[in-house]
Amino acid sequence: MPNFYHNDMNASMDRNFRLLRVLSCLQEGAAPAQDILERLADAGAAPAIASFYRDLNRALEIGWIEVADRQEPARPGRPARCYRLTRAGRSALRSQGRRLYDFASSALLHPRSLGKGKLS
What we know:
- It contains 5 helices and 3 strands; from the N terminus they run αβααββαα.
- By secondary structure, the chain is of the alpha+beta class.
- The radius of gyration is 17 Å and the shape is elongated.
- A 3-stranded antiparallel beta sheet has the order 1-3-2.
């Protein structure tokens, strides 16, 4: 019998990691979607295109990013919208980064404690 809680939890974690990766790509300033995708690919975290645009829209809805005033010429065609982090996005990135760091530190210091609960 499949473990639906485990599958849902993994999907939720994957979605959150993808959102954090998008936010981290905007730390240095505004960028068009194509540049964000290239940065993710360069970091070895290239998402599926549909997932990326869902994550981008989700971050817009939450208020973690916004459309920047400037636009860049798209590779050919119309100008591309640029996105930038909001104050809330920077705060979310910092707090989630701390949570991940704390979790990883705990896992490295106490690896057996993580194996006591059965997740799969």
